[in-house]
Design brief:
Layout lengths: L2 H33 L4 E7 L5 E7 L15 H4 L2 H8 L7 H6 L4 E3 L25 E3 L12 H14 L2 H17 L16
Parallel strand pairs: 3-4
Antiparallel strand pairs: 1-2
Length: about 200
Amino acid sequence: MNKGKRCFDLLVSGIALLILTPLLAAIAITVRILLGSPVLFRQLRPGYKGRPFMCLKFRTMTNEGDTNETISADAERLTPLGRFLRSTSLDELPELFNVIRGEMSLVGPRPLLMRYLDRYTPEEKRRHEVRPGITGWAQINGRNALEWEQKFAFDLWYVDHQSFWLDLKILAITPWKMIKREGISQPGHATMQEFQ
């Protein structure tokens, strides 16, 4: 593990949480009023070396239409509030707590779903040689508008070329990409089609 990167993650995420506390509180209250409880969406995701951790996000979907037998498609369950939070990436702010806990980094490949682990090629699995990130090289180069092969190629490029200066570059570009709201989702999908 890169100790310098870890110290940087702790410093920046700690400062960010202090500054963003009013915004986090406002979003949490709005989600609680409009969507109910729970406010946070928790899901196991593969982290460093594929080890599972509980990824935190603000809840963006309703449970309406779900039964014990079926769960409605994500696109059907996504609420107007949820679309706004996703389009602005505000739903991902709770991941700062994952960074504090050492489960994520500010910059790295995005944590995907546990069920994808067995679908990766040996080369694709190399994306887990670093901690997953809140933002990353793939996020500033197309995000969810990319095909899976392109996304993995960007992830692996980051793994092979990671540096403090590259992380600073990615962090500097990320706010502009958030403002432009590019690559939020693929047509017909809440985010991306499932990786096969």
